[in-house]
Amino acid sequence: LADGRIIRTSRRARKSAAGYDLTRLFVGSEGTLGIITAAVLKLFPKPRTSATAFAAIADVGAAVALLSELRQALGDRLTGFELISAECIAVTRRAFPAMPDPLPGHAWYVLVHADDPAAQSALSEQLQGALAEAIERGTARDATIARSESQAAELWALRESIPDAQRRAGHNIKHDISLPVSSIPAFLTQAKRALDAALPGVGYVTFGHLGDGNLHYNLVPAPDGQGDAFAAATAQANRIVYDLVARCGGSFSAEHGIGQLKRDELVRYRQPVEIDLMQRIKRALDPDGLLNPGKVL
Amino acid sequence: LADGRIIRTSRRARKSAAGYDLTRLFVGSEGTLGIITAAVLKLFPKPRTSATAFAAIADVGAAVALLSELRQALGDRLTGFELISAECIAVTRRAFPAMPDPLPGHAWYVLVHADDPAAQSALSEQLQGALAEAIERGTARDATIARSESQAAELWALRESIPDAQRRAGHNIKHDISLPVSSIPAFLTQAKRALDAALPGVGYVTFGHLGDGNLHYNLVPAPDGQGDAFAAATAQANRIVYDLVARCGGSFSAEHGIGQLKRDELVRYRQPVEIDLMQRIKRALDPDGLLNPGKVL
User: Fold this and answer.
1) Contact A17, B256 (CB under 8 A)
2) pLDDT tens column, B240-281
3) B41 at the A interface (CB within 8 A)?
């Protein structure tokens, strides 16, 4: 703690209703309330069966429907559902030409992953069956299942290389946002309309963890766009994106926190009473403001 | 809030890293920081396949091993794993003679439940197969699968009637405790040794949600025990049980909270620095102590 005392907020038991949940108060406080020096982890059996697939879909509405269908078929064994736009694949293959292009010619894709702790599991057949039904129903346009661990690793490498490829492609305006899953299609339509008008020719590199409602919604300049002019439009683009996120009931920071960069957004998008409560808690725990000054609040 | 302001701590999006986690601070604060007037719920598909089984086991160590085996076989589709002692069944059948006694003659049982969102699922066969393997391996002594929804409902009625049967059986000393799952067998052995010595003839009505490490560890007087003398021993029994829980890294209140009854335990079993932080938070949010006075802190 700020005064040098050491607090142990968590025990080895998983469940407790003994006073305020101090663990959760420190988690996500970005070092402004205390420094986390140890963590208790709950371990789960390592999956002994996995299945990875790549599906082409018509639009993001179809991705939301496919997510729901695969959840119905696989339950919590569905552990990955990554939305990937065709632009993401193009950017990534420009930077890394050896990357695969598994189902060329579609606008949107999802990378699907499922795990089962059981060794003898029909998981792969169930995923294949669910995707075949989705194609029949029209939710998916096409799909391919990884036939080996190395094929699965290739698909994941494609997904994991997007951020690095983007960095190499030059300046981009990044947004780490979350939305109610069902509102994602409408958000993307409305955000594109507003951004196309404000930043003519802007490109969209959209990917993310659809099951969490978490999008990495990144903007790239028009092919002939001035780098500096584009960078100068960051605040304007952020305002358009975050205002719309707020109207949809989402969050302007899904997983990367506030730090120094998003302090203004915290004040804009959370209620004054929320900020007041956070400041009261900060003062109660760190009255002299010693811990990570200038961050979050 | 105590000052009459209304705060909205949660949005419809599932994921957010935008400032302190105020939702979690209010959850479990028992009305001492604010009054919860609305909640956002995440819905999951209703399971379309379920399976319920009842297994006899030699001891609680075998229950912990069986839990691990069934998790390996079923993953998160294992949704219920209720430990039940033979004493629980005896108490319940004395109060409700129509209740079943599915596998008589064993010391310990578990009620197992599994769910699958898929309509065509081999769940029941998988559970049956896993239990057959457990019997072969010696983890389980015997098992029976409910053949119909009404059989499943009967098994759950047996489990759900234990608290009511206990109430009818007279005074008992109740403990709602949680422990690291792996330490439960040693805890039960050590607690019995200490309690047998302190309260000769004491009976044990032990049941609970083993997957959570949550035990309802209830004591009943010896058949010839004086009701008043037994009730007078409550503080002594609590001390024995909770001291041992604390040494095992558990919690003296797993799910029922502190209220007025366990305020002394909160002070005894949480560090002074934890209590101090809770009090600081209470003062920061409710400086005049208006909300639920006399509870928790």
Assistant:
1) yes
2) 999 999 999 999 999 999 999 999 999 999 999 999 999 999
3) no
| CA neighbor of B22 nearest in space, from A17, A27, A264 | A27
Which of A8, A29, A284 has its CB closest to that of B284? A284
pTM score, whole prediction? 0.92
Q: How many whole angstroms separate alpha carbon B287 and alpha carbon B291?
A: 10
Residues of B in contact with A122 (CB under 8 A): 122
Cross-strand bridge partners of residue B83: B110, B208
Q: Decide if A24 touches B, using CB distance below 8 A.
A: yes
Q: Taking CB atoms and an 8 Å cutoff, what residues of chain A touch B15?
A: 178, 212-214, 251, 254-255
**B274/A22 Cβ within 8 A:** yes
Closest Cβ opposite residue B117 in set A24, A72, A270: A72
- Residue A3: list chain B partners with CB under 8 A: none
Query: Is the interface score ipTM higher than 0.95?
Result: no
| Sheet (strand A78-85) strand order | A142-145, A49-57, A108-116, A78-85, A203-209, A214-220, A176-178
Supply the DSSP string of A83-98, one letter for each residue.
EEEHHHHHHHHHH-TT
- Candidate from A68, A179, A277 with C-beta closest to B22: A277
For chain B, helix, strand, coil in percent to 5 are 45, 15, 40
Question: Tell me, what amino acid is at B231?
Answer: A
Query: Distance between CA atoms of B133 and A201, rounded to whole angstroms?
Result: 63
